[in-house]
Design goal:
Length: 178
């Protein structure tokens, strides 16, 4: 009798774990980084992760009270296609500039705001893409609708920035869709 109960509990636990792995895994990293109000981030560790996983780092910078930031959070970061692309190709880092934490990068410890300025996010929202060497490879400054944002994410994910500018890449995508 006790063995039956244990097996039922174990089966239920396995199903729950399976659900988490399939449906929630893409969002766990995003949730972990964005849930805390005071988080310290070590970019060197993220760079090592990016290298090990063959991914870019994607920093989304936003500020309180910004309607364009809110629109991107409400639209783009709820779009399944964008979330899938981020999960497969990026280490996502949510930089809520008002956070109290610090960011360690290139031997310097800075506030979220100082780090944002340091890597070129002067206007919000801003998405900064960095390769595994710590080089900024693309900046998407300002609001982007879902299609524009997906194009820019795809541009970086495919490493097309190495061979063409964003406009040429967007034209290439348009031709492929037709």
């Amino acid at each position: 009798m006790q063995n039956k109960i244990y097996n039922k509990q174990q089966s239920l636990f396995r199903r729950l774990l399976h659900f988490v792995k399939i449906f929630l895994k893409p969002f766990l990293f995003f949730i972990l980084l964005s849930s805390a109000h005071s988080t310290d981030i070590d970019i060197n560790k993220l760079l090592q992760m990016a290298k090990n996983q063959n991914k870019h780092i994607m920093f989304f910078h936003h500020i309180p009270g910004c309607p364009y930031c809110k629109a991107m959070l409400d639209e783009n970061f709820k779009d399944d296609t964008i979330l899938k692309e981020i999960d497969e190709n990026f280490i996502f880092v949510d930089i809520f500039v008002a956070n109290e934490g610090s960011i360690k990068y290139q031997g310097v410890e800075e506030s979220y705001k100082e780090f944002s300025t340091h890597i070129g996010a002067f206007v919000y929202p801003a998405t900064i893409f960095m390769n595994e060497k710590g080089e900024v490879v693309h900046k998407a400054i300002g609001y982007r609708n879902i299609d524009e944002y997906f194009t820019e994410i795809s541009y970086v994910a495919t490493k097309s920035y190495k061979k063409m500018d964003l406009e040429s890449y967007a034209q290439k995508l348009e031709l492929e869709r037709d």
